[in-house]
# Entry
Amino acid sequence: MKMLTKVIASVLIPLFLLSSVGIADASGTIPSPSTHAQSAALIDVTSGRILYSKDGDQELRIASLTKIMTAIVAIEHGNLQDKVKVTASSFAKEGSSLYLKLGEEMTLENMLYGLMLRSGNDAASAIAEHVGGSEEGFVLLMNKKAEEIGLTRSHFMNPHGLDAEGHYSTANDLARLTAYALHNPVFKRIVATEDKSAPNPNESWEYSWHNKNKMLRLYEGADGVKTGYTKKAFRCLVSSATRDGQQLAAVTLNDGDDWNDHARMLDFGFENFPLREIAKKEQPVANTSVVTGRGFQYPLAESEVASISKKLILTANRSQNDSQNNSVSNDHSFGLAGRIEMQLDGKLIGTIPVYHKGSYIPPQPEMQEAAFAGIGEITTWAAAWRAVISHLLSLKGGFLVD
# Structure
């Protein structure tokens, strides 16, 4: 096990250094979409690349878009089948509400549906108290998650989004948060739901919730995400849509014509930045004995395709062992041979691992993590190593023990 620890420390840590993906810069050739928003952003969910931004780093009030963070933190930290109790401090919360009764209990999963479809502030507080131990404890989790995924211009003071000093985010940060959250299958399922019913312990009728997000009905392929409004934040909206296997998410803050603006933004992304396949899984690398460990897709304008370059970086372990021992018995690479760095105009946009032919290749991760600023520890390369180590630890025989 000591040997394994040394391998992880010597190989993984230096590879955490990945550049963040910048905002698409095709303004010279592609006209930007017009919006009425004070701030806006458009992101490709698979890669995390921001395709359009209008004052996207301006720190603003975000109203109930806050609940995107509330939902993903609750999903990651809670048990969906737990019963959440409505306490005195969460009962009859001001603003939009599910009108839950004091002392009422509902599963966390159903309460999350009420949170995201009807924007229930009572549900937000009840969820926070249940998952975080208190609303204050849950807010700590929210800000920790923001730090983990690289939201450098966001700070949360509550789980519902009612106006509060020190509670803010930006269009760019919300785009990155949404892209992160949409990789979670539970979150993705909930925000795409148009209608949901849930048991009501106090009445003979069930709760019936119709999603406030009109984009689900107005835009072809729409599948999320959240509406928001307060008197100080004004109209806020995050929407997502999927076409031809590509999912985009749009954000507007303080936008009086958000439904139409989002349609234009999403159209802009699908038409000008289609998701293009740059590499396939288990694709042989020319003039080598290695194959790719996963595929790689990236949204590119037509004018950018020729600017993509690939750099193969191989580790020395196997060749050294072969030359010294004419054997691979002392090879501690476990088949992982190196990585390919994908670059656009010389800037790193992601990596994929490469393996010696015939080696164990772990399943592809859910997220092209390299694209998300601030998640250095979850790069594709590091994720591949974790999967390999997990596979080895599951093998019988315990060959990793000294």
User: Anything to note?
Assistant: Confidence is low (pLDDT under 50) at residues 1-21, 318-332, 373-381, 392-402. The first strand starts at residue 39 and ends at 44. Residues 190 and 238 are 14 Å apart (CA to CA).
